[in-house]
Design a protein that fits this description.
Layout lengths: L1 E4 L3 E3 L1 H13 L7 E7 L3 E4 L5 H6 L18 E4 L7 E2 L3 E9 L3 H4 L2 H18 L4 E3 L21 E2 L17 E3 L5 E10 L2 E9 L8 H16 L2 E4 L7 H12 L1 H4 L3
Parallel strand pairs: 1-3, 1-13, 2-3, 4-5
Antiparallel strand pairs: 3-7, 4-6, 7-12, 8-10, 9-11, 10-11, 11-12
Length: 260
Amino acid sequence: MNLHLLPVRTAGAAENMALDFLLLQRYPVPAPRFRHYEWRGPACTFGFSQKIGFVRANLPSFAKASEGPPAGEHFDLCRRPTGGGIVDHRHDWTYALVLPRGHALYDGRAAQSYRIVHEGLAAALAALGQPAAVKMECDKVESCGSDLGRDKSRASTLPQTGEGVCFQRAELHDVVNTATGAKIAGAAQKRNKHGLLFQGSIEKSAVGPVDWEEFSPLFSAALARTLGAEAQETPWPDLNEDEVSGLIGQYSSPEWIECR
């Protein structure tokens, strides 16, 4: 089995979210697939189940309508197909991992896949000298069983901030800076009949200087080992362009962004 490493693409928020979802729904072969991607400009995404009023009230200051983005920059806001909190993508390293239906992690609980993917991420950062580790214990104020123990719908789950703002605090199985306690990485999942979509974000400011070009193959190699696969660079799949543009339009629409 190969882990398909897809080329890096730079896009707006709606396009990035649409492509992640189509890599879950329409990938032509039943193989794990991984991509790192960039953002065309300042962007925030938020969880599928979050209320738009809460989101707008808790956006980073640069994104608030009353202030607007920095001069000459465009601001993107998009609802993700996965769960989780608000993520500011201006200074993060963003990725998506998709596992086909029938893979061992697809059949496991959300907490298991969350921990295992983050163990690979933490190992890649540690190999570069960063004090990174997976948080293995709950804080006293946390309820460990709330999200991590539930996977009833096997759909959209995220063991972090729920209806909150990502990177404000670390929760169970997030990646943390062991020197400062800061949250380094979080993620969200969506599981359906096609497979498991894992959307993740690394906050660059939570670690020291990192050569991200060096980090990327270390992380993909760690994921490949975890999945029992061999990492293989793979061309971008042929997706139906009408479906791609249609989903981008849906994800750009007020109906999608403000649907809750």
